[in-house]
Amino acid sequence: MLDKNGIAQRIAQEVRNGWYVNLGIGIPTLVANYIPSGMEVEFQSENGILGMGPFPMEGDEDADLINAGKQTITAMPGAAYFDSATSFAMIRGQHVQLTVLGAMEVSQNGDIANWKIPGKMVKGMGGAMDLVASAENIIVAMMHTNRAGESKLLSNCSLPLTGVACVRRVVTNLAVLDIRDGAFHLVEVAPGISVEQVVAATAGKLVVPESVPEMQIS
Amino acid sequence: MAISKQVKDVTAACSGVESGMTLMLGGFGLCGIPECSIAELVRLGIQDVTCISNNAGVDDFGLGLLLQQRQIRKMISSYVGENDEFERQMLSGELEVDLIPQGSLAERCRAGGAGIPAFYTPAGYGTEVAAGKEVRDFNGKPHILESALTADFAFVKAWKGDASGNLIFKATARNFNPMMAMAGKITVAEVEELVPEGELDPNSVHTPGIFVQRIFQGSGYEKRIEQRTVQSR
Predict the structure, then answer these.
(1) Which of A130, A167, B132, B226 is the most buried (most CB within 10 A)?
(2) What is the domain extent for residue B63?
(3) pLDDT single digits (tens) A182-217
């Protein structure tokens, strides 16, 4: 079974040279730590930076330089700053090649819910609705089940939706799954996890091919 | 000769702000928020205002200060996750809240300032956000109609500015400030450094002074950091 860093490490393998990538709050932010050195990749944060770098050294933090999670960050050589309208022009205009975000629920037709639990928790959607409505390549990073042990991969989302039929791939602590033709398709299992465990933890329709490789995580 | 927008202080800058008005406030989290103007709005004690701002501050800073005093009737925001008092007022029904996608919020402000009454966007289609909104297909994909936003007053914060109202922002403190400056009937800009006329390079101006009606030299900036994340040396 993977931890959060393992999920991030597996998603980093999806990133290609020359891509602009938007990473959401939480596990997705960790993906930046696993990009091979030498690969030409720029991270976009929707509050207004392209070329986001790592956290600053202690004492160098700048209140005017944060990411979408409000964390202090640095800017890489070649970075650019811009306003929020320009930022979402990049996102809606499909100039960003990969979007990675977290979710509370994902359905077998690619719907995603991650912004509201009616009557309990309302944080707001932030930029997530714009991101999922426009991006062609959306990967969800999340735990396979919630704290109560219930599957987060469902036939239909029970929570208010963030976007419809938009998620292409899900990477969890148990598996990599693609979404197409109204079903989850098992692509890889996490180290030490059996196909049966994934089947048991997946409430939505799951297609399992004859052979399922194990994730290669160094 | 250039048109001067300079006013003496924050009190002069906020003159005319009244209860019941719609206000825009720049910033993302606590980054790039108009700290001096917010403090003045608290001092003025105005009530029942509608605030358009990406976030609602934290419990004891930013817009949280106005929430504490129950001065806000309605918030229009995209993300409000860092403020317990906000969540309490919202869930209890004391505070009306309109949550809208961040890109739609930015574009609605931009449109308001640019004379575009409405536009279609794919963001929010198939969700609660689309309720009651016109849906139309473009290039085989459904979009929803979003309307422009304007405000009686817009409060923005810049790094540098001059008496003409030209503004330069620093790093990610730019965020919503330029669009909100465009969308305010009266836009109040507070700056960390008000420089003499002619000192800002016209090539580098982010917000041209035409969008700013009042500008003043801010003071006492706390510039609080919400999530201090560092690497140890």
Answers:
(1) A130
(2) 19-99+150-217
(3) 999 999 999 999 999 999 999 999 999 999 999 998
Contact A58 B233 (CB under 8 A): yes
Count: domains in chain B: 1
Closest chain A C-alpha to B100 CA, distance in angstroms: 7
- The whole-model pTM stands at 0.97
**Å from A192 to nearest chain B CA?**
32
CATH number of the structural domain spanning residue B93: 3.40.1080.10
**Among residues 154-183 of chain B, which lie with CB inside 8 Å of chain A?**
159, 169-179
Asked if residue B68 is part of any domain, the answer here is yes
Q: For residue B125, is it within any domain?
A: no
Q: For strand A98-101 and strand A138-141, is the pairing parallel, antiparallel, or unpaired?
A: parallel
Q: Are B79 and A61 a contacting pair at CB < 8 A?
A: no
Residue B123 lies in a domain: no
The reply to whether B5 falls in a domain is no
ipTM above 0.95, yes or no: yes
